[in-house]
Amino acid sequence: MPKLWPSKAWFIVVLFIAGVMGIARHAPSFLQAPDSAAAAESGTAPVRRVNVTYTSATDGSIPVPDRAIFWFGKVGPTDNNYTDTRVIFNDDQLFVTLHIFDRMLFYKKDPAAAEMPDWDAATLYLNLDGNAGTTPGANSYRFVAQTNWNEARDGYQAAYHWDGSAWAAASTPFTTIDGWQGFANNSGEDKGWNVTFKIPFSSLGLTAKPADGTVWGMALAVHDRDDAAGTFIPDKVWPENVNTSQPATWGQIRFGLPAYTPPPANPGGVVTIRHGLNHAVVQDGQVGGDGNCANSLWPDFWSGWGDLNYASGNPQKRMVIQNQWNLGDWPCFSKYYVTFPLDAIPVDRAVISATLTLYHYGNSNQGGLIDPSNPPQPSLIQLLTVADDWNEATLTWNNAPLAVENVSRTWVDPLPTGPPYLNVPRQWDVSGAAAAAYAAGTPLRLAVYSADNAKHSGKYFRSSDVGNEAVRPLLTVTWGYDKGFTMTVTPPLAQVSPGGTAVFTVDVQPTDGSVSSVTVDVGDLAPDLSALPATQTIASLPGAVTFTATDSHSPSFTAGVWYTIPVTVTGGTAVQTTTVQLLLNGGQTYLPTIQK
Residue 490 half-sphere exposure, CB side, CA atoms within 13 Å? Predict the structure, then answer.
């Protein structure tokens, strides 16, 4: 509908607003919020997001591998709190599990709520309004759990709700379950502890689970105590620059897994990217314990495990992906990083689909030869995007980039012993991640990990350094023409009197030869405005057509009206739309000159 204005005096204001709208519509990059890939290039921290898996399983049977995983912290003799975090939800609750590597375990029996963060404990922050705002709000919650040693859970957890100015103790119902590997409250070295927060949706005022696509704000803090005296140790937090009093600095959890919808595009070609093919450099590296659980460090894993680098110490050219629930085996955990350049994709195209292929050639406990009673288990291997660049020669568990977002996952079954089962291709859909990286002008950087719980769930893959080029990691990208042409309409703004007519020109230029003719449509107009012709064809590009827009008011009409006219150009599967403005009864108001 047109907007009516009481007099002509508004015209100069309208022109100013229209100019501002034009700036916003065509804003340069420095006026736009950066996405994850562009953020790394600009030096700003990306917004970290966890796409939370849904399960229909009830409490007590929630699957472990299905949980979305991310991580933060480091492993070392003093800086020794690293955390794997697993997240999943069902119809009733959100489950957030922290597996914390911790060299010394200390807890207090029957602590006051305010004392819990002074010991080995964890805090979960949730904001149902998203990661926005300079202060928490009415939908902001804080949950604290302190570990304990065979004590009842009552008395070792606390809930808080934002009361408008501070975190106030609340009776919000929730449950925690914890476990540990080691001996608490003494000088003996331990392996760590874990805690699961179970947050009922009803406790947060909801009548059902959040709909797919719902985004909440989330932050985590892991509190550490390594001696009875309570020597100060900084919290380990996620995201890394979080201010727990400012939800705008928190990360995100999105309910449901993401799906990529490619833009309308005519297929153009397929690009295959692997190390050495067409001179491409595909850097990859592993961090963690490798296939032998870093046994060269035994028994002092705390001193050097987090700083292991495999650039020159990996004669088998393998990449190991391995995790499990039992923290007693954390020296065996391994992640994989890989970076694919995307400059082989032609400029100004659309990513229709992209697939990562890794070549699987072995398992932990291959064929059950090491531990016949615990044969190899399937793995749900997850792909996560990475914003920060890294160097294969210096990459370690402690300096490896944090994940930005989990984007894909694939079940990988164990291989039987020996050929002909070697080098089996395993594939992941990375279309959305590749499209985002391509649009940002960055490489596709990925981390590969799992949330598995079984002891022998590790999988071995070929690296970019293996001699057989055919089994190196492969990225296959199908691209297309998503535009095919550019369009402009002039003038962008015209002025008429009641009953008057304005003439607009639509100019269409080809960009890549994929579109040779287009249809121009003008429509969805206000009742007192008409456009002729409403539909035209430009049979051969480049070309231009004109249309007229006529107001139907009588000459005595005096109110001001701002019309918006949409113009759509269609060529093949490519569609572009813009708008122009028509001002009725416009005028100018001159402000007095002020001289100082």
Answer: 4
Domain count of the chain? 3
Q: Both 127 and 97 in a single domain?
A: yes
Token representation of residue 239: 């995201």
pLDDT tens profile 249-291: 999 999 999 999 998 777 889 999 999 999 999 999 999 999 8
Residues 80 and 223 in one domain: yes
φ and ψ of 279, to 5 deg: 65, 15
Torsion over CA: 240, 241, 242, 248 (sign)? negative
Mean pLDDT confidence for 563-581: 90
Q: For the domain that residue 533 is a member of, what is the CATH number?
A: 2.60.40.10
Question: How much is the pLDDT for 481?
Answer: 78
- What is the residue type of 414? P
> Tokens 């008429």 map to which residue?
496
Q: How far apart are CA 316 and CA 294, in angstroms?
A: 15
**593 within a domain of the structure (yes/no):** no
DSSP 217-243: EEEEEEE---STT----PPEEESTT--
Residue 108, domain extent: 40-255
Q: What is the pTM of this model?
A: 0.78
Task: Report how far residue 25's alpha carbon sits from residue 492's, in angstroms, rounded to the nearest whole number.
Answer: 13
Measured between alpha carbons, how far is 378 from 363 in angstroms, rounded to an integer?
10
Alpha helices in 289-402 (DSSP H): 301-304
Percent of the chain surpassing pLDDT 70: 89
Check: CB of residue 290 under 8 Å from CB of residue 334. Answer: yes
Same domain, yes or no, for 434 and 285? yes
> Which residue, 96, 379, 432, is CA-closest to 258?
432
Tell me, what DSSP letter sits at residue 189?
-
Does residue 29 sit in helix, strand or coil?
helix
First to last CA, the chain: 44
